[in-house]
Amino acid sequence: EETGMSMSSYMVQCSLGKELKLLNQEQKSAYKNLATYHSHFARIGTLIRNRADISSEVTEVIREIKKQLEILRNGQ
After folding, report:
1. How far is CA 47 from its chain centroid?
2. Is 16 helix (H, G, I), strand (E, B) or coil?
3. Which of 12, 23, 55, 75 could make an SS bond with 27 (beta carbons 3.0 to 4.6 A apart)?
């Protein structure tokens, strides 16, 4: 709970020998919000997959959110 990770993510990271960094409350909140946004944009992308003009923009937003999630998760 202190890491802001799900139990399964925590167990995977521990078993891989990765250093776990504790997130402060602000980082936890930002991570949860970004994870929610990522999920929502992925769903939007699925709904509009046949519209290439919008689909490429949504795909780019999804990539950027995922990148920020990785940065928060890995403490970079």
Report:
1. 20
2. coil
3. 23
Asked whether the beta carbons of 27 and 4 are under 8 A apart, the reply is: yes
Domain range summary for the chain, segments of one domain joined by +:
23-74
Quote the CA–CA distance of 55 and 42 in Å, as a whole number. Answer: 10
| Cα 42 to Cα 28: distance, rounded to the nearest angstrom | 21
| Sign of the dihedral through C-alpha 62, 64, 65, 66 | positive
Average pLDDT over every residue of 19-45:
83
Residues contacting 59, CB < 8 A, separation 6+: 45
Q: Report pTM.
A: 0.49
